[in-house]
Structure formats: structure tokens, C-alpha cells
Design a protein that fits this description.
- This is Transporter.
- It comes from Pasteurella canis.
- Keywords: Membrane, Symport, Transmembrane, Transmembrane helix, Transport.
- By secondary structure, the chain is mainly α.
- The two termini are 40 Å apart.
- 74% of the residues lie in helices and 0% in strands.
- It has 18 helices and no strands.
Length: 454
């Protein structure tokens, strides 16, 4: 049986929501969402994303919140303890361990993306990437190949710098470090985001990009695309790797989980949609194809900024926004593993932080970086090491963990889950949510899981 222990709680609902928003608004909203929109029909993808957030996003946020706050412990022990009438099998903690492996997998490549962003920021500041005059695709690709693909040592150093920034904040604790940092970083992110949106929607020709982005072409909506969008919601909301379970374990028992889940879902959707507004109008203004995939941010947007008045300033602002978004997410993903080490192994926080960040850097970040150079012939599932970390964590581990969470709530916790969710466990909303999570959500996750593997 898990021993309950006193732990801190968030200073207010606002700080918790800001922290969860920070956890969910990372590269998923600012890098992945825009390029997926560009590749998959513009407004059609955005339309489906908003529907998917309601169908799977908010219900699953509530699932993880219930699991996390129930015992107020780490993401492994959250699946343990006793019910009033029978024991919960000790094997359920496997779900918690799957989440930790998923967290490791995403951080293995996620931190490298942070290193890429720092490379661009410093290169723009020093003039190594000169966009004072218009550049073309060749210049943008040459810079990317030279400073990202062919410079593993430089990328490793900048990735290590990003890791060090995380270490400095994490060392101050969940409240003194993460909460305090998010209080400043999230308003700054919003400020930068609004500034970029205003700049882009006022460009001549911006309306064509806005039309592409917001007007759904219903002929492009297919069942396969909808399943794909449902899967993106898991990535966008940091579902399936213990983040929301860990963060909600610091919630007090009086907090309204339903309200916080709805606010979280809408906040993530709004920021993801705003991210598109700071990208697509400018692409269409300068005649750049929106379907350039993962390289959209790193190879296409520098071309755009080179055509803008004060382009260097806005480019630095944009990549700084990406870095802030990445930081607010990486802090919370690291915390999943750190909290587990502290509580499972009774490890000092400083040692848990060093072990977590150090092992991920050596066993994850470095191989991911070398996957495009020295280790380019090493593949898993036919993918490079970098892409394999993304594929295994996003398409396999996250799905299995989320499936386990839904089954755990619906078939193991049962009434206890409803009581944890609401002081009125027999209310219409609670009963609908519980039955939806118990019977419908697992089927949706199975469909996503199978389609990802095909």
C-alpha cells in the first residue's frame, strides 16, 4: 500500500492552469501543429482538431487528473493503493512505468529541438544567419544542413545549454522553481505570440493565408485524417506520459477538476490556433508553400522573415517564443521522472534531477543528435534514431499508457473515480463522462493505435 505523504499544493488555480498550459503548449502547438495543418488541408485539419479536443482531449485530461489527485503521489504509485472492498493489483503500476518510458522517449529528441532553436537564435543575433536581405530556399536549406545536420558537436553543446537552463529551474522545486518560472514565462509567451500574430495578419496578402487556415475544405476530411488528428491531440496535451498525473497530484481536494480540464483544453486549442496565425498569412504573402512538413519552421520561415521589415527582430522574437514554449513543457516532463525517483527510491531531489537530466542527455539526446551523422545507418522501424524516439513514444507508449489510464478509471476505480471528479458523483455530467471514458475512449484509442502502426 502506498504511504501518503504531505506535499505542496499550487498557490492558486491560476498558477496550476498556467503550469498545465505551459506543459501542453510546447513544440506540439508551435512547431508540430502548424506543419501538420499545412500538410493536411489547412482549415479542414483545424476544424477536426477542435472537434477532437472535445471528443478525446478534455475527457482524457479528466482521466489523468482523477488518477493524479486521488492519492497525490508520483505517476507510478498513482496506480496503486487499496479500495475499500478489494486490493488494486500491483501490476497496474506497469501503466505508470510505461508513462515514464514515454517521457524518456519524448525528451530524448525534444531537448535536441530546443538545441536547434538556440542555434537559430544565436545565429540570428550574431549574423551567422543573415536575413537582412531576402534569402531563398537554397540559402535556408544550406544553413540548416551546415548548422543542424552537419554540426553534431554544436547542436550537442546548445542542447546541453537548454538542459542546464532546465536544471537551474528544477533545482528550486515544483513550486519555487516550476510554478515561479511559469508565472513569468507564460505571460511572456502570450505577449510574443500576440505580437507575432498582429505582425502577420497585417501583411499585404495575408487574407489568402487566413482563408487557407480557417476555411475547411470538407472534401479533404476523411476518416483516416480524423484518426490522425485524434492522435495529435494526445501529443498536444501531453497525454500518456504522466505529466498531468504528476501536476494534478499537487492539486488540493477542493479544486474543481472539470473547470480546470475545460480551461486547459480550450487554452491549448487557442494557442495552437494562434500559432497558425503567426505563420500562414506570411507564407502566402511571400508565396512559400505551406506543406513543407517538419522543416516548415526551420527552413521556410527564415525566408519569410528575410522579406519582412524588422525581419531579424521578428525572427529572434519567434524563435524565442518557441524556446519558451519548449521550456515550459520540458520542465514538467522532466518532473514526472524526478518525482518518481524521489518518492520510489527516496532519492534527494538534487540527485534525482542530475540522474534524470544526465541519463536522458547521454542515452537519448546524444544518440538523437548523432542519428543524422555518425549513427545515420542505425535505424529502428526503418527510422533514424531521432525519428524512432518520436515514433515509439508518440505512437506506441503514449497510446498504451492512455488506454491503461482509461481502463483503470472505468473498470478499477469505478465509483471512486466519480467521487474524485466531482462532489456530486451522481450528476448527469459525471455519469456521462464516466461511461464515455469506460466504453468509448478505449475504443477510440485502439483505433488510433492500430492506424498509427499500419
Amino acid at each position: 500500500m502506498t504511504t501518503k505523504q504531505e506535499r505542496q499544493t499550487w498557490s492558486s488555480r491560476l498558477t496550476y492552469i498556467m503550469t498545465v498550459a505551459g506543459a501542453t503548449v510546447g513544440f506540439g502547438a508551435t512547431w508540430r501543429f502548424p506543419y501538420l495543418v499545412g500538410e493536411n488541408g489547412g482549415g479542414a485539419y483545424v476544424f477536426l482538431f477542435c472537434i477532437a479536443m472535445i471528443l478525446i482531449g478534455i475527457p482524457m485530461i479528466l482521466v489523468e487528473n482523477v488518477i493524479g489527485r486521488r492519492l497525490r503521489v508520483n505517476a507510478i504509485d498513482a496506480f496503486s493503493d487499496k479500495l475499500e472492498t478489494r486490493n488494486i493489483s500491483k501490476h497496474w503500476i506497469i501503466i505508470g512505468y510505461l508513462g515514464l518510458f514515454g517521457a524518456f522517449g519524448i525528451m530524448a529528441y525534444y531537448m535536441v529541438l530546443g538545441g536547434w532553436v538556440i542555434t537559430y537564435i544565436l545565429s540570428l543575433i550574431t549574423g551567422t544567419l543573415d536575413i537582412s536581405t531576402p534569402i531563398d530556399k537554397t540559402v535556408a536549406k544550406t544553413f540548416y544542413d551546415l548548422h543542424i545536420g552537419d554540426s553534431p558537436i554544436q547542436v550537442a553543446l546548445y542542447t546541453l545549454l537548454f538542459v542546464a537552463i532546465n536544471y537551474f529551474i528544477l533545482a528550486k522545486g515544483i513550486i519555487g522553481g516550476i510554478e515561479r518560472a511559469v508565472k513569468y514565462l507564460m505571460p511572456l509567451l502570450f505577449l510574443f505570440l500576440i505580437g507575432m500574430v498582429i505582425r502577420n495578419i497585417t501583411l499585404p496578402g495575408a487574407m489568402e493565408g487566413i482563408t487557407f487556415y480557417l476555411k475547411p475544405d470538407f472534401s479533404k476530411i476523411t476518416p483516416q485524417l480524423f484518426v490522425f488528428v485524434l492522435g495529435q491531440v494526445f501529443f498536444a496535451l501531453s497525454l500518456g506520459f504522466g505529466v498531468l498525473i504528476t501536476l494534478s497530484s499537487y492539486l488540493n481536494k477542493e479544486e474543481n477538476l472539470i473547470q480546470t480540464a475545460v480551461i486547459t483544453g480550450f487554452t491549448n486549442t487557442i494557442i495552437a490556433v494562434l500559432a497558425g496565425f503567426m505563420i500562414f498569412p506570411s507564407l502566402f504573402t511571400f508565396g512559400i508553400a505551406p506543406n513543407s512538413g517538419p522543416t516548415l519552421v526551420f527552413q521556410s520561415l527564415p525566408i519569410v522573415f528575410s522579406h519582412l521589415w524588422l525581419g531579424k527582430f521578428f525572427a529572434i522574437l519567434f524563435f524565442s517564443l518557441l524556446l519558451i514554449a519548449a521550456l515550459t513543457t520540458s520542465l514538467t516532463i522532466y518532473e514526472v521522472i524526478i518525482t518518481a525517483l524521489q518518492e520510489k527510491l527516496k532519492m534527494r531531489r538534487s540527485k534525482a534531477i542530475t540522474l534524470t537530466l544526465g541519463s536522458i542527455f547521454v542515452l537519448g539526446n546524444i544518440p538523437a543528435i548523432l542519428g543524422d551523422s555518425v549513427l545515420k545507418d542505425v535505424t529502428f522501424f526503418g527510422k533514424s534514431i531521432f525519428d524512432a524516439f518520436d515514433y515509439i513514444s508518440g505512437n506506441i507508449l503514449f497510446m498504451l499508457t492512455s488506454f491503461g489510464c482509461a481502463i483503470f478509471v472505468g473498470f478499477v476505480l469505478k465509483d471512486e473515480a466519480k467521487k474524485e471528479l466531482s462532489p456530486n458523483p451522481d450528476s448527469t455530467f459525471t455519469r456521462i463522462w464516466f461511461n464515455y471514458v469506460k466504453f468509448v475512449v478505449p475504443l477510440i484509442i485502439i483505433v488510433i493505435f492500430v492506424s498509427n502502426l499500419l
